[in-house]
Predict the 3D structure of the following.
Amino acid sequence: MRNLIYTLLFLFISVPIISQEEDAKEKERALRTSTNLTWDGNKNLSENNFVQAEVDYRKAIAKSPENAAAPYNLGTAYYNNETYSEAFGRFKEAGEVATSKKEKHKAYHNMGNVFMKRKDYPKAVEAYKEALRNDPTDDETRYNRP
């Protein structure tokens, strides 16, 4: 009876640990796949294949929400195509999932650029301020801030 109790106790303790390890491995695989799809999107965009690049970026975003580069790059593609509403949404998404100050800075800087294009200067100022909070040394952001 004692051995049965020890066995059951071991199973109850080890199953969540194994499950957490499997979840971590799956997240790592998903992030790797998402990163590869982002690279594919970059390549297609450099070859002026916007439609396929957009598909690749969207797949990358769906595969791993932890990949801040995919929504940022898609936002940049939209911005360059003067599709500012879509660009803003993707920059905002990138800023929300970004884990580094550098990534956050780039996202907020470009949100400020979108607001400038829309002539929404108060919001542009706020976005640029947030960008500078994440990188106070960026002269371009400081220059862009009205």
